[in-house]
């Protein structure tokens, strides 16, 4: 269960950072997302849960711009972004999840963080271009890199190759690379897929801790962890929002219990 302390760690201030208004996404005659409206506060840790096929990944694709909406509006930071391309949304501060590893194994830990910090998010985080960028910001970037290395607790292995890192340190580096791109909102679509229970717990806790100033949207199947760490939870079912609220409200919601949790959470 989420404790007050865990919720208070995050700096939400009641300001809306993301607003979805009447979103619809159809594939042929099938509505994968069917009139979804929701708001997310700046700094919030929001989890999206629901059975397989509920529309969770589709919803993320509409937020990131990977898929065009059939109907409805997406607002970010108070501005409409419904028609913006994915790179334009990255430029606004919507970070991509790291389902596919974002780390270059042959480069050092420091080089990985530095590259991400150097890749101006206004370019849509283009790593290749960032290699060849004019380097007037080097002073800033070096400081920023050091700050992030300390934050993810990898300063002692900064010069080791990413490929040589232990499993947990590799996860830290991946999260550090996300942080280095300075996103405002980060979408994590099952970042722990394929991990053991312990690895899952460590990874989600680390995301929560390192990205404490960011707004997080997480799709995650480990319900206990979701209940423990989220500020709020949105439950999707058949493309619609079935319920939304704090972990306590969601675990106490009878229709969520019936449709999804099925007694998984008391
Ligand atoms: N490109 C597509 N074309 C047709 N149908 C699609 C497409 N993408 C998703 N769907 C359908 O939309 C529904 C929602 O899929 P989505 O992947 O968003 O669900 P999900 O909640 O993320 O599921 P899971 O937990 O299994 O990842 C599913 O029935 C899926 O088959």
Task: Describe the structure in your own words.
This protein has 266 residues and is of the alpha/beta class. It folds into two domains: 177 residues, Rossmann fold (3-Layer(aba) Sandwich), CATH 3.40.50; 81 residues, no CATH class. Helix content is 37%, strand content 23%. The strands form two sheets. A six-stranded mixed sheet has the order 6-7-8-3-9-10, sandwiched between helices. The chain is globular, with a radius of gyration of 19 Å. Adenosine-5'-triphosphate binds next to helix 2. One of its GO terms (biological process) is amino acid transport. InterPro entries: AAA+_ATPase (IPR003593), ABC_AA/LPS_Transport (IPR051120), ABC_transporter-like_ATP-bd (IPR003439), ABC_transporter-like_CS (IPR017871), BCA_ABC_TP_C (IPR032823), P-loop_NTPase (IPR027417).
First-last Cα distance: 10 Å
**Average predicted local confidence, pLDDT:** 86
**What number of structural domains do the residues give?**
2
CATH architecture of the largest domain: 3-Layer(aba) Sandwich
Shape category: globular
The helix/strand class is alpha/beta
- Helix count, per DSSP? 11
CATH class of the largest domain: Alpha Beta
Radius of gyration in whole Å, from Cα?
A: 19 Å
Q: Approximately what portion of the residues adopt beta-strand conformation?
A: 15-25%
Helix content: 25-40%
SSE sequence, one letter per element: HEEEHEEHEHHHHEHEHEEHH
